[in-house]
């Protein structure tokens, strides 16, 4: 089984070497693709240095300018499919997602035969560390709102720690994914749900970053709120057969 973890970066120099070394220390072998949006802090340069040590399993795709989380993942998904990977993972660079949980996501898909495994902050209560209560409530009730509108049975639809099988990413029309922030994560899961892929949630503990700067903004959150309604409406006029 070929596993690829996609990590989008913008100014992650404080975290990137540690995240690379941690992923490569896991019991299950994972390759890493860093999609860097021209980080001025030297994140891309650090990856190139690390490639001298990790010559066969660390890859870098550099883009010019800050083009958005969603487009970074779409870029990575297409790269992964072209290279023949079986399971493709989304993960943040800042240790808010514990790399150890990659193994649990892998087992959920490979051993338990799910097509999508979501690292879920809310499947077993609320498992978020270092977030102010306002942000926790905003995130939690965003999930309630998404489930109400879409009827998708996912407790953490905005979560960004995910394993997709290659069949899912080959089926979803990636060029038609339109959103870039929170709504991108919802749109991908909603597509997988509409195509009737088997989905599960794996409980995780989400720990807010201790190094670097958060990329969250009210603009991204607004995109999710209004984007969900748009997604639901267009889903009524499309066919989802595979």
UniProtKB/TrEMBL annotation:
Residues 5-170 form the Glycosyltransferase 2-like domain. It comes from the Bacteria. InterPro entries: DPM1-like, Glyco_trans_2-like, Nucleotide-diphossugar_trans. The keyword Glycosyltransferase applies. Signal peptide: none annotated. Keywords: Glycosyltransferase, Transferase. Belongs to the glycosyltransferase 2 family. This is Polyprenol monophosphomannose synthase. It comes from Lacihabitans lacunae.
């Amino acid at each position: 089984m070929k596993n690829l973890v996609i990590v989008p970066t913008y100014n992650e120099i404080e975290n990137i070497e540690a995240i690379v070394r941690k992923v490569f220390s896991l019991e299950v072998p994972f390759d890493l693709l860093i999609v860097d949006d021209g980080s001025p802090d030297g994140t891309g340069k650090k990856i190139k240095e690390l490639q001298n040590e990790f010559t066969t399993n660390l890859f870098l795709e550099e883009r010019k300018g800050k083009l958005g989380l969603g487009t970074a993942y779409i870029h990575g998904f297409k790269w992964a499919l072209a290279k023949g990977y079986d399971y493709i993972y989304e993960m943040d660079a800042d240790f808010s997602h514990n790399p150890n949980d990659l193994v649990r996501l892998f087992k959920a898909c490979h051993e338990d035969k799910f097509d999508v495994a979501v690292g879920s902050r809310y499947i077993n209560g609320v498992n978020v560390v270092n977030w102010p209560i306002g942000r926790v409530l905003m995130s939690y009730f965003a999930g309630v709102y998404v489930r109400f509108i879409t009827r998708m049975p996912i407790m953490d639809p905005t979560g960004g720690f995910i394993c997709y099988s290659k069949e899912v990413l080959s089926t979803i029309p990636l060029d038609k994914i339109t959103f870039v922030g929170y709504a991108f994560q919802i749109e991908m899961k909603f597509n997988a749900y509409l195509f009737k892929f088997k989905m599960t949630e794996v409980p995780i503990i989400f720990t807010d970053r201790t190094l670097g700067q958060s990329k969250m903004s009210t603009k991204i959150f607004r995109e999710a709120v209004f984007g969900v309604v748009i997604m639901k409406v267009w889903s009524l006029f499309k066919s989802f057969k595979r």
